[in-house]
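User: Once you have settled down, look closely at the record that follows, taking as long as you need, and be ready to discuss the fold:
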Amino acid sequence: MFTIHTLGPKGTNCEKAAHYYLEKNDLDGNVILHETLEIAVEKIKKDNNCILLGCIVYPYLHNIVFQNLTFLKLTDCFVLDTHNMLFASRYTDLNKIKKIGSHPAPKDLFSEVNGLNKPIESLLFNSNSEAALQCANGTVDACITTLKAAKNHNLNILHDFGPVPMGFSIHSKIN
């Protein structure tokens, strides 16, 4: 069976893109989600009939490409709208938000949210879905995340940035 290794946990834009890629290419396969793409690369080394799906704004994607030239090559790219990107919280009152979380890529969206008290402490997480999970668990008060992850964790949507046209890369093993 064909496998796509990509960024998790459930609800990431990479997971959405992986399922899209399978459908678009009429492939029977599964999607395995990893804490980071770097961990996914290590798993691919031990797996056959698989690819890595990355997001072009993933921090250090260039390292994944150039540090693995002996066994991975870029074989495809496509553009797909992300899930709606959101500013979400356990709270509905912006004044209660003291700590925010995000994946490094969309963290600048915080500056687009009006009414946030500044300065505010921020934490970075491995994915948008992880930011939502950590918000639900109380590690942070609010986060930049996806609509899917916010719903999965019963967060309040305070600002909807909408979908973002995003590039996704496919990396195949060199035979």
Q: What stands out?
A: Residues 13-24 form the longest helix (12 residues). The CA atoms of residues 168 and 175 lie 22 Å apart. Helices lie at 13-24, 37-44, 61-66, 128-136, 147-152.
